[in-house]
Design brief:
The complex is a heterodimer of chains A (about 110) and B (about 110).
Chain A: E1 4-7, E2 10-13, E3 18-25, E4 31-37, E5 44-50, E6 53-57, E7 64-70, E8 73-79, E9 87-94, E10 102-103, E11 107-111
Parallel strand pairs in A: 2-11
Antiparallel strand pairs in A: 1-3, 3-8, 4-5, 4-9, 5-6, 7-8, 9-10, 9-11
Chain B: E1 9-13, E2 18-23, E3 31-38, E4 45-50, E5 55-56, E6 61-64, E7 70-75, E8 84-92, E9 105-110
Parallel strand pairs in B: 1-9
Antiparallel strand pairs in B: 2-7, 3-4, 3-8, 5-6, 6-7, 8-9
Classes of the chains: A mainly beta (about 110), B mainly beta (about 110).
Amino acid sequence: DTEVTQTPKHLVMGMTNKKSLKCEQHMGHRAMYWYKQKAKKPPELMFVYSYEKLSINESVPSRFSPECPNSSLLNLHLHALQPEDSALYLCASSQAGQPKAFFGQGTRLTVV
Amino acid sequence: DAKTTQPPSMDCAEGRAANLPCNHSTISGNEYVYWYRQIHSQGPQYIIHGLKNNETNEMASLIITEDRKSSTLILPHATLRDTAVYYCIVRVDNAGNMLTFGGGTRLMVKP
């Protein structure tokens, strides 16, 4: 199983809503990531978890709150987002310390 | 990480070889060259990586120049499904997990 599964595939939320994105992998990877991708731009790193601990936060606003409840799951909690946060949110996983990563298909988020 | 430079776009005829160049003139001795691609509206997909020797797998071949300042990803028989953005990334192995994506090359395979 070399899949990274992200749910939901699409999400529309209001600026006052609270929602969560979910990511799951069963490859035994101990590093998991969140990326944000705007249209026609490359993915931008948001967070890195290594062995279930947050190791990198790329100066992401606090309205994005990551959580890694166990080695297979990664969540991204969203609250009070702005329309400019509309983007494709990608989750990835890899062996710890290895740049060979497996990506999910992403959640396309629209903030209205 | 060393900076990479790729042409913004390329065309290739279906069935022909697609040769995608990447310049990484400031690469250091322990940095690997990784290639990923992203088909429209999907997550990036790992293709291949190498240090200094040429590499081949079921998807592509990677040719790295002897001075390691540039490399070429070769798709030997491009199909329409190879239309994607191809990213060349230089990274030190075992020094962290992050992948930093540059602009990439948008490859259009035409019938």
